[in-house]
């Protein structure tokens, strides 16, 4: 492909910033992936199960982040880019399908799909962008993905703790490479300009994946209730779970969620802000996965004594979400609202008492704390002018 032909594959400053239907279609696969992650954690509600779920979430999150980064840099309206996205979607479907047995007999399927997505996509782009300077960016990525492929595949051939250790090493390579901007012999580090972040598009993609995560939460809540028998206590648990979902949405969109496109467009270092947004959204999605497990528990077992592990996910899910939301707020506004910290303390303080209460009461307590956070946001905004991100901070 000529340099001129390669340039046609890339976004131009005047191109639309809106995410395309193809990208939203790609996100649908992650409903299955997140549902399977919740299933894995629900069936292995131990420290080991939580650790394994985290490893799988980090891998899935990194695939999504890189795909979103690709469509930031390349034009998703071009057939060749569409082919890459659709092929990646097929690979993600394999990843999602392998999640329940990724630390069992499907380890090679999971690791193989992950490596094939990242290495294969990078090879394809390096070839397609022959003669264009942007090729250097994807060449760096290819080198780093090639390095991380070794512990990914080696981990798939190992068992238990060895697999987990090798996969953590692979994830460290993948995430550290991006943070360091993929320093590569002969090519150096990627510059901020090479990332080609499109502010409005980037913000919309993160908003979309958050809504997808909430969709998974609604899905699991509905499935749990459909098999509950529809008794009054189960119905009460459904209402509380739905209220929690609505509150997570409300807290997310308040100011920082709405103003994220403006913040990333005006940022002095949009790459740094983009990375922070990526990690904060990953934390929030992890909180939603925990919340989904908690909702399933409370709908299935609304009465009786709550087990310690149940309390951990029912209170820890909203708590982890608030941590991610606080990081996101700091990235946009360079400060964190006081009610975020108050909410975290309010979730943690009653934990010992909750050991003697029914799961429904625990869920009500979590929902009440989120209600307080949302009410605090509304009170803070009342009578004040709309806040804007600080200029030139980053």
Q: Which tags fit this structure?
A:
single chain, mainly alpha, I/LWEQ domain, 76% helix, 0% strand
Secondary structure tally: strands: 0
Structural class, from secondary structure content?
mainly alpha
Mean pLDDT: 88
SSE pattern: HHHHHHHHHHHHHHHH
- Cα end-to-end separation: 37 Å
- The low-confidence runs, each spanning 5 or more residues with pLDDT under 50, are none
Please give the radius of gyration in angstroms: 22 Å
Largest sheet: none
Task: Tell me the overall shape.
Answer: globular
**Whole-number tally of structural domains:** 2
The helix content is: over 70%
Strand coverage percent: under 5%
Structure description:
This protein has 394 residues and is mostly helical. It has 2 domains: 3-195, no CATH class; 199-381, I/LWEQ domain (Up-down Bundle). The chain is 76% helix and 0% strand. It has 16 helices and no strands. The chain has helices at 3-7, 21-27, 29-43, 47-73, 79-98, 107-128, 135-157, 160-179, 192-195, 199-226, 232-266, 270-300, 308-333, 338-348, 351-354, 359-381. Helix 11 (232-266) runs antiparallel to helix 12 and helix 13 (308-333) runs parallel beside helix 16 (359-381). It is globular, with a radius of gyration of 22 Å. The mean pLDDT is 88.
């Amino acid at each position: 492909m000529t340099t001129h032909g390669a340039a046609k594959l890339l976004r131009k400053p005047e191109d639309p910033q809106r995410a395309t239907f193809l990208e939203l279609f790609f996100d649908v696969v992650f409903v299955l992936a997140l549902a399977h992650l919740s299933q894995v954690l629900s069936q292995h509600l131990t420290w080991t199960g939580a650790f394994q779920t985290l490893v799988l979430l980090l891998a899935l999150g990194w695939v999504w982040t890189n795909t979103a980064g690709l469509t930031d840099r390349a034009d998703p309206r071009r057939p060749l880019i569409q082919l890459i996205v659709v092929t990646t979607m097929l690979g993600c479907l394999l990843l999602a399908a392998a999640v329940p047995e990724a630390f069992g007999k499907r380890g090679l399927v999971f690791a193989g799909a992950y490596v094939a997505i990242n290495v294969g996509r990078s090879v394809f782009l390096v070839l397609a962008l022959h003669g264009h300077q942007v090729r250097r960016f994807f060449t760096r990525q290819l080198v780093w993905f090639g390095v991380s492929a070794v512990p990914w595949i080696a981990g798939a051939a190992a068992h238990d703790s060895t697999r987990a250790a090798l996969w953590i090493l692979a994830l460290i390579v993948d995430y550290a490479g991006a943070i360091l901007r993929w320093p590569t012999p002969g090519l150096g580090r990627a510059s901020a300009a090479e990332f080609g972040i499109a502010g409005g598009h980037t913000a919309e993609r993160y908003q979309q994946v958050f809504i997808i995560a909430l969709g998974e939460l609604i899905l699991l809540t509905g499935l749990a209730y459909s098999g509950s028998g529809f008794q009054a206590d189960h119905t009460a648990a459904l209402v509380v779970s739905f209220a929690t979902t609505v509150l997570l949405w409300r807290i997310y969109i308040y100011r920082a969620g709405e103003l994220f496109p403006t913040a990333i467009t005006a940022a002095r270092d949009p790459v740094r802000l983009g990375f922070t947004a990526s990690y904060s959204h990953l934390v929030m999605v992890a909180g939603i996965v925990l919340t989904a497990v908690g909702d399933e528990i409370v709908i299935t077992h609304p009465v009786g004594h709550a087990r310690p592990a149940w309390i951990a996910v029912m209170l820890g899910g909203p708590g982890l979400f608030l941590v991610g939301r606080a990081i996101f707020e700091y990235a946009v506004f360079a400060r964190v609202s006081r009610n975020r910290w108050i909410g975290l303390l309010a979730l943690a303080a009653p934990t010992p008492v909750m050991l003697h209460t029914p799961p429904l009461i625990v869920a009500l307590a979590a929902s009440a704390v989120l209600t307080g956070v949302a009410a605090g946001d509304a009170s803070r905004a009342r009578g004040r002018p709309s806040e804007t991100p600080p200029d030139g901070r980053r």
